[in-house]
Amino acid sequence: MPELPEVEALAAFLRENAVGHVLARADLASVQAIKTFDPPLSALAGLEITGVARHGKFLDLDVSGLHLVVHLARAGWLHWRTGLPEAPPKPGKGPLALRVHLDDGNGFDLTEQGTRKGLAVYVVRSPAEVPGIARLGPDALEVDREQFAALMAGRSGQLKGALTDQTLISGIGNAYSDEILHAARLSPFKGADKLKDDELVRLFDAVRATLTAALERQRGQQAATMKGEKRSGLTVHARTGLPCPVCGDTVREVSFADTSLQYCPTCQTGGKPLADRRMSKLLR
């Protein structure tokens, strides 16, 4: 799933390549992707793209006062295209959800792999009209240490869930929450409201350091290379069975119904493997 660093990098890429151009037309290839009807998607045609912003993991194109807002969900991505074909795409064929044509013949495709579709497109007069944006907590790179401590203290439940709850703090997803917890040397199952002062400091610093480093790696990347750049910087996420680059222990995994997390026992849980949530009581 694209998270704060990737969405911010995509926003920067579009500021450089799309802002100042007229949106010639937008072709919808997946009807289920569009979540709004007023204004219609066709209202964007002929208007200039005047800015690009990020709200949590939402990408927001300001099109002369109207907003084309996109959430890429788990398997969505933006592909920059040069010389787009004039013929509109056939609806329901392949991973294409939306194609945006600019006045210079270039543009971009929004695609989503797999059968489980979650990519969402909104055309609104204000980003606040998008329910997911209206519910967002403070941005993970903008919250200060005192705010962060208050957010964690007021949250019952596990750290993994707290970090990925967009209404609590926005921008962090499954991958970077694993990376942050590894950097902070904390179990994903530790209670968010049970953190000691030194653990809070480590966690806050890890949020800042992990996201900032990922964002720096993404700066200047083309849209096509951002996914690979993200994977190359991961230490535990999606590395089950590989050695931890910090201590050499084997990276372990806990699987859930539709997702999983990865961690290092030596670095995070005192050497104890965490139990699979589906089978036994969690180890704290």
Task: Describe the model.
The chain has two domains: 4-134, N-terminal domain of MutM-like DNA repair proteins (Alpha-Beta Barrel), CATH 3.20.190; 145-268, Helicase, Ruva Protein, domain 3 (Orthogonal Bundle), CATH 1.10.8.50. It is built from eight helices and ten strands. The protein has helices at 4-17, 131-134, 145-153, 159-164, 174-184, 197-218, 226-232, 265-268, and strands at residues 22-28, 47-55, 58-63, 66-71, 76-81, 96-102, 107-112, 120-124, 252-255, 260-263. The strands form two sheets. It has an eight-stranded antiparallel beta sheet, covered by helices on one side. Strands 9-10 form a two-stranded antiparallel ribbon. The radius of gyration is 20 Å and the shape is elongated. The two termini are 27 Å apart. Residues 2-119 form the Formamidopyrimidine-DNA glycosylase catalytic domain. InterPro entries: FPG_cat, FPG_N, H2TH_FPG, Ribosomal_uS13-like_H2TH, Znf_DNA_glyclase/AP_lyase, Znf_FPG/IleRS. Belongs to the FPG family. One of its GO terms (molecular function) is damaged DNA binding.
Write a short abstract of this structure.
Helix content is 27%, strand content 21%.
Which terms summarize this structure?
single chain; 284 residues; alpha+beta; N-terminal domain of MutM-like DNA repair proteins; Helicase, Ruva Protein, domain 3; 2 domains; 8-stranded antiparallel sheet; 8 helices; 27% helix; disordered C terminus; DNA repair; DNA-(apurinic or apyrimidinic site) endonuclease activity; Formamidopyrimidine-DNA glycosylase; damaged DNA binding
